[in-house]
Amino acid sequence: MFAGIKFAAVLANSIVILTAIIGSGGLGRLVFEGLASFNTDKILAGSIPAILMAVFIDVGFSYVEKKITPEGIGSE
Which alpha helices (DSSP H) does the chain contain, by range? Predict the structure, then answer.
């Protein structure tokens, strides 16, 4: 169950970046502007925070999963 929740949270983070295509702005805007103008600094300014957020989400949910799940469950 937690694997699905973690996957959905990380996927939602990815979709937020892609919503810049429809004009929502945010980090995705930096990524797409950088790609359009071949500006590596803009690409990195948008993609590095997005990557860090995805890692933080994954690690955070893993921590919560370990705290909530009783010992012995899922180790079979």
Answer: 2-18, 27-37, 40-68
